[in-house]
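Quiz preparation item.
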């Protein structure tokens, strides 16, 4: 499985970014997909998941109402629209299959063997 994330940048607090993640090497619409992030000195955490057809999503409380995850199965691509960015959103962002199922299962990347290179998001004035 190969994953390529893009779209990260330096943005001011309150700003917006749209991340993309293109996946190859698997049957894309067999899997729920998720976004993860890792801030300096902290572990990687999953925070947004979208099921196989894009009709069901899940967010952790810290991003709920600010971030939107979506997918385009025709392009094997997952998106993350981030609004109202805060300095605490600063991290390296990754995407990956959320688990082994078409629906968000709470696995949060448990079965990922190789992560992509990620894309850096820095929120600072």
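Solution:
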């Amino acid at each position: 499985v190969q994953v390529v994330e893009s779209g990260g940048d330096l943005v001011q607090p309150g700003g917006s970014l749209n991340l993309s993640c293109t996946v190859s090497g698997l049957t894309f619409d067999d899997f729920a997909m998720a976004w993860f992030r890792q801030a300096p000195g902290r572990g990687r955490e999953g925070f947004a998941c979208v099921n196989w057809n894009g009709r069901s999503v899940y967010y952790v409380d810290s991003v709920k109402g600010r971030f939107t995850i979506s997918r385009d199965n025709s392009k094997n691509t997952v998106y993350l629209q981030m609004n109202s960015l805060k300095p605490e959103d600063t991290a390296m962002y990754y995407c990956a299959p959320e688990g082994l199922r078409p629906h968000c299962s709470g696995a949060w990347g448990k079965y990922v063997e190789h992560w992509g290179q990620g894309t850096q998001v820095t929120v600072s004035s």
